């Protein structure tokens, strides 16, 4: 727990990685993903936040995403791990850090859709979709049971939505998200958030993604949002508008 706290500082995360080699990280991930790894029955949940903090750094993201080690696939199931909010939050934090780095967007959106499913599954409920809509969804998100519930923690829901927003930066990625039924999933999620959970920040985060996905590319008129230079005064205006919008919700 102490290491998870001090590694929040990016410079310290760099220092920790300098003392570790990829094999050390591999051993830590093995311990994290094997629930009965610790013979004294310590749950090792705080390894999740530690990995999250390490992926603040470029080297941390690189190690987690390298095909050579396949670490990202090993941690994905814990994005929906109901037995521990700490473990679940750490995993979602890792995914968010990776999504905020455009270098890894092609990896995130690769086939099969395992990483995209890890981002979307916690936002899915038991709603039924039309046959046409179901055909768009990744296999793992089709025909979810009536007992399916959404992520209960609003901070984690917001992190997932912010991650999806980052994936909307490039035209190629936006088209992929549309083809996988992300809009349809968020449409139902927004209804639930507005009626049941009623978290204003999550509603705004959802609407930010939907506002992009419902637009045609001709309307957007650019390939990469991240290449747009937004003046400081305009950025501040947008933030103020968001604050006013949240007050009115």
TrEMBL record:
Residues 163-220 form the Protein HGH1 C-terminal domain. It comes from the Eukaryota. Coiled coil: none annotated. Residues 1-158 form the Protein HGH1 N-terminal domain. Belongs to the HGH1 family. This is Uncharacterized protein. It comes from Musca domestica.
């Amino acid at each position: 727990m102490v290491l998870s706290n001090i590694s929040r500082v990016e410079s310290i995360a760099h220092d920790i990685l300098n003392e570790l080699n990829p094999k050390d990280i591999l051993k830590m991930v093995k311990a994290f993903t094997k629930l009965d790894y610790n013979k004294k029955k310590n749950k090792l949940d705080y390894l999740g936040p530690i990995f999250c903090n390490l992926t603040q750094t470029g080297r941390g993201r690189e190690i987690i995403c390298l095909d050579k080690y396949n670490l990202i696939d090993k941690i994905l199931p814990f994005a929906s791990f109901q037995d521990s909010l700490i473990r679940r939050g750490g995993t979602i934090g890792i995914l968010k850090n990776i999504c905020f780095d455009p270098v890894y967007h092609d990896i995130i959106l690769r086939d099969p859709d395992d990483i995209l499913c890890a981002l979307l599954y916690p936002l899915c409920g038991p709603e039924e979709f039309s046959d046409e809509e179901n055909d768009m969804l990744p296999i793992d998100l089709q025909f979810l049971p009536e007992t399916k519930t959404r992520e209960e923690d609003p901070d984690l829901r917001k992190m997932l939505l912010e991650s999806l927003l980052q994936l909307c930066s490039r035209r190629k990625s936006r088209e992929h998200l549309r083809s996988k039924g992300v809009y349809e999933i968020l449409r139902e999620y927004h209804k639930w958030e507005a009626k049941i959970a009623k978290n204003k920040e999550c509603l705004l985060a959802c609407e930010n993604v939907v506002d992009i996905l419902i637009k045609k590319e001709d309307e957007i008129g650019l390939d990469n949002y991240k290449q747009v230079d937004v003046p400081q005064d305009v950025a501040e205006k947008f933030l103020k508008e968001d604050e006013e919008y949240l007050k009115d919700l």
